[in-house]
Amino acid sequence: MAHSVRAWVLDFQGSPLEAEASIKRALELDPNNAVAHAFYAEILIDQGPNNALRAAEESKVAQELAPGSLITHRARGYVLEATANYEEAVREYQAAIAINANIPDLHLQLGINYSALGIHDQAVQEFSNANALNPADPMPDYLSSRTYATVGEFAKARQYAETAVKDEPTNPRYRGNLGVMYFRTALFEQAVKELSLAVQGGLADTGARVEPIELTPNSPRIAEIYFTYALALSKIGRCGEVLQLAQLVQTRIPDDEISVANVNEAVSACGESLNAISSPLPAAITETPLAGSTGSPGVTPTP
């Protein structure tokens, strides 16, 4: 059991090879340990999609050994969620919660799967349950914000985004999400302020230092922060910065059609005022950062 728990912790700390070595040692010592098989399933999923079949096998073995265990239900739900079997994942997380309803992460995962199924009211309820159990955690508020944004309720999304930032003011992803919600509710000056902290970093009004978040391919939430920043800047006439962001997006993620369309929209909104601008990109953007509705502005918001 010590090797099993150590492996689980190593996995959370981002040390997959060490985690796998430790879990294999646990299974050498006790091949019929359900907890070890359950943790191994989660470790395999975290290593990447190529391990999905092996993870599924481990999660099934765990349930055969301990069908009434919270840990085996959780691991099976984790595997099902990672393989987009959301309805089955919901049932597994519900079973785990029926055993112990006081674990915030179980409610978060159940809410995420409800959201994936488009059951948004139940998703928000589960995020609320998680928040009640651990009010200091910003994740339930962040996920509630994203859920309300998905259905176009941006005022509610903004409220939850504000709470997430209060809980963790140094997190650029939460700052960026708040900036997006400010933009979607036409509070453009506030949007620029938060989005600038996310994209370029700096000191917040509270004195919290925010490190910039890097724009990378296949990160739609981060891309949304960058193209919304360009759109917000265009709304307040800071067109030189719009051009710089547009160039950055087109260079870093040229195949992201939504992001490119939105920065092009921002450039078009600035119009002829950009013709005379030819300044280089600022170092805060070009250098590698230290680095998560109908009628609304922009082209196409990401879900």
Q: What can you see in these coordinates?
A:
The protein is an all-alpha fold. It has 2 domains: 1-100, Alpha Horseshoe (Serine Threonine Protein Phosphatase 5, Tetratricopeptide repeat); 170-303, no CATH class. The protein is built from 16 helices and 2 strands. It has helices at 2-12, 16-29, 34-47, 52-65, 70-82, 86-99, 104-116, 120-133, 139-150, 154-167, 172-184, 188-200, 220-235, 239-252, 257-270, 283-286; strands spanning 202-203, 209-210. A two-stranded antiparallel ribbon has the order 1-2. A hairpin with a 5-residue loop joins β1 and β2. α7 (104-116) runs antiparallel to α8 (120-133). The two termini are 41 Å apart. 45% of the residues are buried. Residues 276-303 have low confidence and may be disordered.
